[in-house]
Prior knowledge:
zinc; globular; Metal Binding Protein, Guanine Nucleotide Exchange Factor, Chain A; mainly beta; metal ion binding; Yippee; 55% strand; 3-stranded antiparallel β-sheet
Amino acid sequence: MGGPRLYSCCNCRNHVALHDDIVSKAFQGRNGRSFLFSHAMNISTGPKEDRRYMTGLHTVVDVYCCDCHEVLGWKYIRAYDRRQKYKEGKIILEKSRIVKENW
């Protein structure tokens, strides 16, 4: 196989992230295990909203596949706890919503 290792939307196989952009695999999403990415591609976002997670209050936007509009996860816009600031601008993609490509 050639090319970079990718993650794609589980519904339509649109490429949404590069394996090399994973920051952490130690996250929990609404539907189980999730990955924190520094970047994502071919996504759209919903409106900002404040949500309380296990690590505190965050302003987030839901992240959708730009082709089929499947909800894939969310993006951290603001972390109110200074210890969580590293998440700002990063994207959570739920493992159950993405599939591996070029592995």
